[in-house]
């Protein structure tokens, strides 16, 4: 099964309402990332064709790509957290017994969740500041604060994801890197 198929068929291992929230966030992330990447590709190709075939660039292309990069980046941090694909410094973690790894993963998940919610708060303050200044995008002409809405949304989704990971670790026997990824190493060797 491909990554796209597994993402579309994702069902949370969390019980009840938490599982519903987890599944909804997973589907939201999939739609945002897929749409963002496709729109950026179409926009970039159209601009290249316009520039080299017709001799004119699409005036709004740079601003549209800027919006899409922000959207993909901040939706992507939630996706990375959901799939346990975040950067880990695991020398100490790997040396611990299972109980120690579980306790450390709960602490890491809760602490990271708190940091995400802290950044959510400050990103909202930043957007309110941008709103008060009234700046607009030169080519598109709409308020610049709108393109940064993805920042607090990304921090919110990521904070929730890490919180759900902590809950998953508190309620299960195994150690989880995310709500659906059990701790362990996959064979990453590939043939050349």
Give the SSE layout.
Blueprint (H helix, E strand, L loop, with lengths): L2 H6 L7 H37 L8 H22 L8 H5 L2 H36 L16 H22 L4 E3 L2 E2 L10
Antiparallel strand pairs: 1-2
Helix pairs in contact: 2-3, 3-6, 5-6
Computed CA radius of gyration, to the nearest angstrom: 20 Å
What's the order of the H and E elements? HHHHHHEE
Strand order of the largest sheet: 1-2
Strand content: under 5%
Number of helices: 6
Q: Please state the structural category.
A: mainly alpha
Percent of residues in helical segments? 55-70%
The end-to-end span amounts to 22 Å
- Segments where pLDDT lies below 50 for 5+ residues? 187-192
Integer average pLDDT: 85
Provide a quick synopsis of the model.
The chain is 67% helix and 3% strand. With 192 residues, it is mainly α. Helix 5 packs antiparallel against helix 6.
Describe the structure.
The chain is mainly alpha-helical and 192 residues long. Helix content is 67%, strand content 3%. The chain is built from 6 helices and 2 strands, in the order ααααααββ. A two-stranded antiparallel ribbon has the order 1-2. Helix 2 (16-52) runs antiparallel to helix 3, helix 3 packs parallel to helix 6 and helix 5 packs antiparallel against helix 6. The longest helix is centred in the N-terminal third of the chain and has 37 residues, at 16-52. The radius of gyration is 20 Å and the shape is elongated. Residues 187-192 have low confidence and may be disordered.
């Amino acid at each position: 099964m491909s990554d796209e198929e597994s993402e579309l068929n994702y069902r949370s291992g969390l019980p009840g309402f938490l599982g519903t929230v987890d599944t909804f966030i997973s589907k939201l992330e999939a739609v945002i990332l897929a749409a963002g990447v496709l729109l950026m590709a179409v926009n970039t190709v159209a601009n290249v064709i316009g520039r080299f075939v017709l001799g004119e660039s699409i005036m709004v292309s740079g601003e549209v790509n800027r919006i899409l990069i922000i959207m993909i980046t901040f939706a992507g941090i939630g996706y990375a957290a959901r799939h346990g694909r975040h950067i880990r410094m695991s020398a100490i973690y790997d040396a611990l017994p299972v109980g120690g790894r579980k306790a450390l993963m709960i602490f890491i998940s809760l602490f990271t969740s708190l940091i995400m919610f802290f950044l959510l708060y400050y990103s909202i303050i930043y957007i309110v500041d941008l709103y008060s200044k009234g700046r607009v995008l030169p080519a598109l002409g709409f308020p610049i604060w709108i393109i940064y809405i993805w920042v607090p949304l990304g921090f919110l989704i990521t904070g929730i994801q890490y919180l759900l990971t902590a809950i998953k670790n508190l309620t299960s026997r195994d150690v989880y890197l995310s709500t659906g990824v059990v701790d362990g190493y996959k064979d990453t060797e590939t043939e050349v």
